[in-house]
Amino acid sequence: MSQHADIAVIGAGAAGLAAAIFAAETTPSLRIVLLDGAKTIGAKILVSGGGRCNVTNQKVAASDFHGNRKVIDRILRRFDEQATILWFNALGVPLQTESTGKVFPVSNKARTILNALLHRCEELAITRLAQHQVQSITHQGSEFSIQHAQGILQTRQVIMATGGRSLPKTGSDGSGWAHVKNLGHTVTPTYPALVPLVLDDSFFHAALSGISHDVMLTTRVKNKIIARRTGSLLWTHFGISGPVVMDASRFWILATAQGHHVQLHLNCFPHTTHKEVEDWLIQAASRPGRYTVQSLLGERLPNRVATQLAQFLNPEMAQAPVNLLQKDLRKSLVHTLTNLSLPIVGSRGWNFAEVTAGGVPLEEINPSSMASKKVPGLFLIGEMLDCDGRIGGFNFQWAWATGYLAGTSAALPLCPSS
Ligand SMILES: Cc1cc2nc3c(=O)[nH]c(=O)nc-3n(C[C@H](O)[C@H](O)[C@H](O)COP(=O)(O)OP(=O)(O)OC[C@H]3O[C@@H](n4cnc5c(N)ncnc54)[C@H](O)[C@@H]3O)c2cc1C
Fold it and tell me: What is each CA distance from 413 to 34, 152, 379, 403, in whole angstroms?
């Protein structure tokens, strides 16, 4: 069956929902059709932020993202974090900012965000079609023909919002890139980002499963530092997770994929210098009472972490009295505590990644409208573009901002009075 639309939005994730809403608000008379291949719309929004949906951050800057920062900056300026907060308030969703800067709905439920977006789509009479996987898109003259699982849709404008490949069970399987490639775009290599990392089985991580603490992670390629991040690390049965690991993962993954030998070093004393840690051990040796290495480290680290680190260096080290530590062993201990090389063997992959690194280069879109520079009437938004943010609400901010620009820009020229 063939249908007609003024604007077809392909992909009803965060970016697509935002684009459809802003398009309908810009020109209410338009027929806007939102197509999604998944059975359930918004599944990724529901699992985001641990089920609470971290919608934005109190301070968002281009430096929070990887990609062409000049272009990213231009886009973010047009719809910033304040605009997101005001928009959700207008949708009936009050937000709250946590001490980390992350912004969540006051309800602490991602469902509140999804319901508000779906409700607004209904108010604006946007046609929402689940189980409408798009199979091909052709562009002829001023029209697009979209072949989908249930038939064909003819439309004047297309907004591509098919996401990347993170969490493919939600419908984001990367198929959108094949369609935009067919239309003339390029796609840079894509990798899972914001993803937990897997450690060699012989390492001690499994014994620490469930423990989290603040650390600094340094990524080195050929002994050159390429990234340094401080934050909370979570030990797991397979390796490491937590915000600092998720943020560091893209550096390890991209450099490894490029054939480099990459090292990730763990510093369990992130706000302390190497020398300060050594001075602390020296001073502790002269304290009255009998301190073992384990009991001393336990003053500043979770007990199990202290034990494992000491035992890793030397099986008898944990119970060794601090005042009997020889200089060379003390130096080795400081090295283990502040510069431990983690035996990473891989990442948990797309099923556990929060975002995709790589995608359609930002140079191929017009940053004031998200319009394709290759195909008139085509717009590209959200995670399918070569831009990924760090953890903290930045990726949703990207989805809302690009959705806003594409929605308003696609709808404006179709306004009957323009
Ligand atoms: C577990 C998890 C937690 C996260 N938590 C946060 C968080 O708290 N804060 C934050 O900022 N970011 C978070 N993110 C990242 C954020 O969810 C994404 O960056 C954002 O949802 C991307 O939006 P999008 O609309 O571009 O793509 P997606 O949300 O991936 O949506 C793409 C849509 O397109 C559809 N689709 C794909 N191909 C086709 C096709 N061929 N035909 C039809 N439909 C198609 C898919 O079914 C999907 O619904 C999280 C991600 C994950 C996986």
Answer: 19, 24, 13, 17
What whole-number distance in Å separates Cα of residue 253 and Cα of residue 258?
9
Q: What is the pLDDT of residue 1?
A: 58
The 10s digit of each residue's pLDDT in 39-51 is 999 999 999 999 9
Residues with CB under 6 A from ligand 1: 10-16, 35-38, 44, 47-49, 53-54, 133-134, 161-163, 166-167, 171-173, 175-176, 354-355, 382-383, 393-396, 399
Q: pLDDT confidence of 303, banded at 50, 70, 90?
A: very high
- The predicted-structure confidence for 83-114, as pLDDT tens digits, reads as follows 999 999 999 999 999 999 999 999 999 999 99
Q: Characterize 223-234 residue by residue with b for buried, 16 or more Cβ atoms within 10 angstroms of its Cβ, and e for exposed.
A: eeeebebbbebb
φ/ψ of residue 50, rounded to 5: 65, 30
- 177, with CB counted inside 10 A (0-12, 13-18, 19+), is buried
Strand partners, 154: 4, 145
Q: How far is the CA of 80 from the centre of ligand 1 (A)?
A: 19
What does DSSP say about strands 143-148 and 197-199: parallel, antiparallel, or unpaired? unpaired
Which residue segments constitute the domains of the chain, with CATH numbers given? 2-191+355-414 (3.50.50.60), 196-348 (2.40.30.10)
pLDDT tens readout for residues 171-183: 999 999 999 999 9
pLDDT by residue (tens digit) across 243-284?
A: 999 999 999 999 999 999 999 999 999 988 889 999 999 998
Alpha carbon nearest to ligand 1 atom 19, residue: 395
Query: At a CB cut-off of 8 Å and minimum separation 6, what does 177 contact?
Result: 162, 187, 190, 359, 360, 384
Ligand 1 atom nearest the C-alpha of 164 is: 30
